[in-house]
Amino acid sequence: MVGKAFHRAKTRVAGLHRAAYERIKAPVVGLHQAAYLLAGLTLASQALALLRDRTFAHAFGAGPVLDLYYAAFRVPDLVFAIVSSLVSAYVLIPYIAKMNREDTERLLSETSSFLLIVGGLICVLLAIFMPQFLTWLYPSLMQSGMQREFVLLGRMLLIQPILLGLSGVLSSVTQVHRRFVLYALSPVLYNLGIIIGSVFLYPLFGLVGIGLGVIIGAIAYLAVNIPVLVEWGIHVRFTVPRVRELIPIVHNSIPRSLALGMNSITALFLTAIASNMGSGAVSVFTFANNLEAVPLALIGSSYAVAAFPALSEAHAREEREEFTRILSSSARHIVLWSMLAFGFIVVLRAHLVRVILGTGAFDWNATRTTAALLAVLTIGLAADALELLFNRALYAARQSWRPLMYQVAAGVVTVALFYYLDRLAPAALLTPLASYLKVTDTHEVRILLVALASALGQIFLVGLSLVALRSVAPGLTRSLVVPLRDGTVSAIVGGVVSYGVLLLLGEMLPLTTLATVFLDGFTAGCAGLVAAGVVLYILDNPEFAMVLSVVARFVREPKKSREALQPSGEEPIQP
Predict the structure, then answer these.
(1) What is this structure's pTM?
(2) How many CA atoms lie within 13 A of 66 on its CB side?
(3) Is the dihedral of CA 42, 158, 166, 253 positive or negative?
(4) What's the mean pLDDT in 362-386?
(5) Residues 365, 61: Cα–Cα separation, whole Å
(6) 569 by DSSP, 3-state: which?
(7) DSSP annotation of 443
(8) H or E element, residue 423
(9) By three-state DSSP, how is residue 277 classified?
């Protein structure tokens, strides 16, 4: 009987494999291979980012030191998004791919010089007026006893966007020549520099020591690209940029650059709002954002980066059906896995935060508040991930200004939503939300409204993008209904099973050590995943079948799977 049941299950999975391949053409299969490979590389860099956050949590907890660091970091982050992305690898790669060594050397020299001149001028002006700028943004933090160190840190961190911008220019050569190991090593070294700053330099220099660690990490981020330049005989020199040569590059970059800048402005305003909510509010909000960034990078960034070349080629050949098929396939996977991630994060949020951050000075109240914020932010996970894909789809469709307009609208809506929600009677929303997330007794639960406004703003943003994409990808919205349904059902079932296992293990395992907390959460998560997989199997979900097919192809043909990886542009780095 067991043998017959196994045979039926095996036949059923094989049938799902064949159905998935019939629905989706070979290029789309390659797309999923590239997405999963990118997710694997991303997971490695995200792991070190989490180690960086754990180091911060252990050493400083959710308190004034990290509040000041994260608040100061938002200023250079804005400079990087606006200035450095004007001449980023995202734009330079198509040019360099067609150039010889001499032309590549000239282009890199001119773009690097442009970045140094324009970015340097902006950073100098910001450094001069840094006290006034920080007072306007963070009046509460500027009244702390560390005002002098706060201003100095803000000025020091202005070196970072220049170094990262130069790295973006030079990494275009690294990516064109497919040195992906070096490219993937950059964020690893960057985070190592920050860890060195917090562990070794902070005890010597205080808050400034963390800033020195950031600069060390940014230098390492840049230096990774030098061996490739030396190997190909490319010597980058400072020169006077020729405006006529740079106009096409900057012109093509402006919409994306301003869109990234608008996103950074929204984050800056949310951080400023959080800074007025008491000590540690900025820290827990940033920690929660960084934790949400892990599934966002694994799901959203991987598919967005993998799909962009295929979308660009399909639109260039005016193959509308192929464009829609690629976009729809990517979006369906993003919706399915984002909904699953949301279900498990809500159930296992306290375990995740306690295992990753719960050490040293990071106390139980900070753990609960961060876990609650993570659950609220993850409401917008699917929208966040879809927006990364939809932005690239609009760029591929030559509608580069739409993402900017939508980012502006979403930024305004997000900030307005917070003030609207904050003016509601607490019993209408805040008290029930805090009660459900079990943080009613923690300090300043209003920070939950900042996270909720951020999540709802992202949902509004993705709605605008779906409307815009109707003309270039008809039927896209309808294609997302099934994965949304399947993802929701499987997430509920998986979440219920995980919660049941947590209750069962809670009676047997005292959650007093890191090992028992990890074992408890890991066991519950695995049980929930199995239950969710069974649900997707019963629902005949084609995306689930495609995952099984791609994994099997990775095992059978690992070399060909690696070749599916495409070069990509960089995104702003997490603090």
Answers:
(1) 0.86
(2) 29
(3) positive
(4) 95
(5) 11
(6) coil
(7) S
(8) helix 401-423
(9) coil
